[in-house]
């Protein structure tokens, strides 16, 4: 979750991470950028491909950046997810990646979990989730905002 990929600090951080780890694929949530702005960042970071879900004004926004080493097929997307199947070129087997940006409003958070249950019915490949579920595991993780019930 980059809280606005267009700011210089976020772009510099993304460049440093991609140089250090050389990933074949990166999922970004809450980019707050248009398709054109995200494509410029794709080029800056050296990725060959970019798929974006436009931000709503300066809210939300998703992006998937990847290199030619991946045979990637996007299965579905929304303002909350990008779901894809990946095959590493020259290797056997497929796996699935779903990038998630969960609903931040507590009263509609169940929609994120319903989406995942719906997606689970479609494929039988190994499955990896990445992103921001907008959920905390334990209350001590929470900083700021209204108090949450202890779970």
UniProtKB/TrEMBL annotation:
SUPFAM superfamilies: DNase I-like. One of its GO terms (molecular function) is catalytic activity. Residues 1-135 form the Endonuclease/exonuclease/phosphatase domain. Signal peptide: none annotated. It comes from the Eukaryota. InterPro entries: Endo/exonu/phosph_ase_sf, Endo/exonuclease/phosphatase. Pfam families: Exo_endo_phos (PF03372). PANTHER family: ENDONUCLEASE_EXONUCLEASE_PHOSPHATASE DOMAIN-CONTAINING PROTEIN, RNASE H DOMAIN-CONTAINING PROTEIN. This is Exo_endo_phos domain-containing protein.
